[in-house]
Amino acid sequence: MLGKLAELVLFGIAPMILGGLFIPGAIAAEEATISGEVSYRERIALPPNAILTVRLTDMSLADAPQSVVAEQKIEPAGQVPIKFELKLDPAVVQPNVSYVLQARITVDDRLWFTNDERHAVDPLKPEPAMLVLKMVKQDADAPPALFDRIWLAEDIEGRGVIDNAQSTLSIASDGKVTGSGACNRYFAQASVEGNSIKIGPVGSTFMACAPAVMDQEQKLFAALGKVSAYRIDGDGKLFLMDANGVDIARFAGAG
Predict the structure, then answer these.
(1) CB neighbour burial string for 97-124, b if at least 16 within 10 angstroms, e if fewer
(2) pTM score, two decimals?
(3) 110: closest CA among 131, 137, 87?
(4) Count of alpha carbons within 13 angstroms of residue 41, beta-carbon side
(5) What are phi and psi of 9, to 5 degrees?
(6) Structural contact between residues 121 and 56, judged by C-beta atoms closer than 8 angstroms
(7) Most buried among 145, 157, 169, 222, by the most CB within 10 A?
(8) Which of 182, 191, 106 shows the shortest CA–CA distance to 147?
């Protein structure tokens, strides 16, 4: 048995001894992990096809192409803050080398967000990384802003809306909410953080309208009370979602 063990060691096959049994196969070195979050300051939601790519790169040679040491691609990216976790073999980490984290969010192969500052990291002694990206995409194709415009309801709780009974929503940059329920004017206060949104109790005028119109209005008020997040898709539609991520109302930009 000792002769066989020596032979295995000679040929670079390190055995693992478990309870007196020899199991061929080298013991793999533990992986190093770099984790953190990616966010940005703009109050817009990412479309469903957004992709986040986080890389650890070797920046030691300024006149040479960047060497990617580790990479994670999150597809779909979801909404910020987006957690990431890079895994790498510690054996590839070289001494006296400058390593930095780079993150970018793309949509249809077009760059929307990236970090414009170097985020140096020690791959073998990493601390949680908080990467705040800068918006690059600012052309006419960018999602429209949530604030200071009128949104016209197209669907409430999956039941559509009455063609001649317009329910609207407007959120000012200070969080003031106003609109027409379909019969009455209403008002509330919203708190918006990233793509999260909470709307406080709704107050309204006291006009009476046809039962179907009043029913639509009450459904809108109920939906506003349940909203937890929002997104604006590539067609410029505003979707309000509940705490489970289910769409509860859809709006089109009306002004």
Answers:
(1) eebbbbbbbbbeeeebbbbeeeeebebe
(2) 0.48
(3) 137
(4) 5
(5) -65, -40
(6) yes
(7) 169
(8) 191
Cα–Cα distance measured from residue 181 to residue 216, given in angstroms and rounded to the nearest whole number: 8
Pair 63, 40: CB distance under 8 Å: no
pLDDT at 25: 41
Tokens 């949530």 label which residue?
A: 146
pLDDT of res. 219 = 95
Our CA angle for 179, 180, 185, nearest 5°, is 90
Confidence category of residue 20, pLDDT binned at 50, 70, 90? very low
Q: Long-range contacts: 175-179, Cβ < 8 Å, 24+?
A: 177/202, 177/224, 179/150, 179/151
Cβ-in-10-Å burial (0-12, 13-18, 19+) of 170 comes to: middle
Pairing of β 176-180 and β 129-135: unpaired
Higher local confidence (pLDDT), 109 or 34: 34
Tokens of 19: 């309870």
pLDDT tens by residue, 67-77:
788 899 999 99
Counting Cα atoms < 13 Å in the Cβ hemisphere of 66 gives 13
Is the pLDDT assigned to residue 9 strictly greater than 80? Answer: no
Surface-to-core class of residue 75, CB atoms within 10 Å of its CB (0-12 exposed, 13-18 middle, 19+ buried): exposed
Bond from prior residue into 95 cis (ω within 30 degrees of 0): no
